[in-house]
Specification:
The chain is an alpha+beta fold. The protein is built from 18 helices and 18 strands. A five-stranded mixed beta sheet has the order 4-3-2-5-7, sandwiched between helices. A five-stranded antiparallel beta sheet has the order 17-16-15-14-18, sandwiched between helices.
């Protein structure tokens, strides 16, 4: 792969860029028009103003907004026909755009399709306007055009919009003076491309300790919950990466504020993140959020034959975890997997809870695949041996700690003890200099598959076992009596 880094740090060379696209996802959608003005020491030295055949259909609303129709694009050059000129025009320049991450992500991905890794320093003119003119609430391109009296021949056409950006910068430079203008633009270039609503100082002041962070949108809508051993670095990474998906771009566009909760270690961050996602259902944490709907295969201990009952995850109590013989994302998946087990080990679908009882036994009995346990024709001992073998590697491991365990995590100022019993997270006790007395957090005493995976991974790590001990009775009393 060719790696092309295109930037200088002295603001002597600027590329004012705008692109029109077939959609908002830089991976799936394509560029259909590019406008660039290359400016060196205040003078325009080269331009690009071209349509690009995106080789995909253009939605009608985009055709209506831009005035670019399929007939025009069919005669336009492909991106590989203009990319050499584009690379030369961007050479050594700061990439200047309005909501710069959007245009940058599309240009970057167009180059990636030809195995060219494009990189450039960015400056966002939305953030520039917010810094220079904080008295105004609106900083979109239409607001800039109206406020500063900038002429724009064809709005939503790439070259004309790029020309607006150049004119805005010239006007702003005269308004505030070159010294102030260059000081602010240099600062914007050197810092991560933060969403326009998030101040740099706020990110600078975030803790560099473990914890959980929450991204909020307008009117308090929860967009995303994340965790890290270094909150500040992780939050920064959201805005320094070249956005690879439509989801990332949408989060940045919608983000209005960030809240953080510190923890004493990585385990606390993992557990709190998992719990918060299930509690508040952030829009962009869909995969983990759905885990609440998992179906559990529970061993049924009544009767002489080993049986399975399918239950929802939320109905498994703490003292029943030793009877969990499988966890599945849906009832359909559970039935499919249990049918395979029945076929492989000659077990009965009725006793596995995936077929209703029948006077004549299950259908597999008629095919000779079930040996008649459902009709009392097979000895229970023989059937149960195959049952145990079939689920040996699928059931939840036995809890071998002899009771409630305490897992301690600690930083210089923060101590937190987590309490776990039978793979169920019971809660924690925290102490920090800001707390007059320990803070106790309790959790529902029911099995959660995501929590189980977090705890299993932690407890199997030899380096972390030293922090695990049996909980003292006084600790359990504090937890249960709070």
């Amino acid at each position: 792969m060719i790696v092309v880094e295109r930037y200088n740090q002295r603001m002597e060379k600027l590329a004012f860029v705008d692109v029109e696209t077939t959609g908002s996802d830089p991976v799936r959608d394509r560029v259909m028009e590019v406008g660039v003005l290359r400016v060196e020491r205040g003078k325009v030295v080269s331009k690009i103003d071209t349509l690009v055949n995106p080789q995909v259909s253009v939605p009608p609303f985009i055709q209506s907004m831009t005035g670019i129709v399929a007939k025009d694009l069919s005669r336009a050059p492909l991106f590989d026909e203009v990319m050499r000129d584009l690379l030369e025009t961007l050479e050594g320049c700061v990439f200047v755009a309005h909501n710069a991450r959007f245009d940058y992500a599309f240009i970057k991905h167009e180059f990636l399709r030809y195995d060219i890794k494009f990189r450039a320093k960015m400056m966002c003119t939305v953030r520039l306007s917010r810094n220079l003119y904080p008295q105004y609430s609106k900083h979109n391109l239409d607001a800039l055009i109206q406020r500063h009296g900038i002429a724009c021949q064809s709005r939503h056409r790439a070259f004309d919009d790029a020309l607006v950006l150049r004119d805005f910068c010239e006007i702003a430079k005269k308004d505030v003076g070159e010294k102030v203008f260059h000081a602010i633009t240099n600062e914007l270039i050197q810092t991560p491309a933060l969403p326009v609503q998030i101040e740099k100082k706020f990110v600078d002041d975030l803790p560099d300790t473990p914890g959980v962070y929450v991204f909020y949108g307008e009117e308090g809508a929860v967009l995303y919950v994340g965790k890290s051993v270094d909150i500040q670095s992780r939050v920064r990474s959201h805005f320094t990466n070249d956005y690879m998906s439509e989801r990332d771009l949408r989060i940045a566009k919608q983000l209005s504020r960030i809240e953080v909760t510190t923890t004493a270690g990585e385990l606390g961050a993992l557990l709190r993140e998992s719990w918060m996602i299930k509690k508040i259902s952030p829009y962009y944490n869909r995969q983990l959020r759905r885990s609440e709907d998992f179906v559990v295969a529970m061993r049924d201990t009544e009767g002489e034959y080993e049986k399975i009952s399918l239950v929802r995850r939320g109905h498994v109590e703490k003292n029943a975890t030793q009877n969990i013989y499988g966890v599945y994302k849906s009832k359909k998946m559970a039935k499919s997997e249990l049918y395979k087990i029945a076929e492989e080990h000659n077990l009965c679908p009725v006793l596995l809870g995936i077929e209703p009882p029948s006077r004549t036994g299950c259908f597999n009995r008629q095919l000779g695949k079930c040996f008649g346990a459902c009709a009392g024709e097979e000895r229970a001992a023989a059937y149960n041996i195959r049952f145990v073998k079939a689920f040996a590697d699928k059931k939840i491991p036995r809890w071998d700690y002899g009771g409630v365990v305490a897992i301690e995590e600690q930083t210089y100022t923060h101590r937190e003890t987590h309490f776990v019993d039978n793979w169920v997270y019971l809660g924690s006790i925290e102490t920090t200099p800001d707390l007059d007395e320990p803070r106790v957090t309790r959790y529902p005493e029911s099995f959660d598959f995501d929590t189980y995976k977090i705890l299993k991974r932690f407890l199997r790590n030899p380096r972390k076992r030293a922090r695990v001990s049996l909980a003292r009775q006084e600790e359990i009393n504090i937890l249960t009596e709070s």
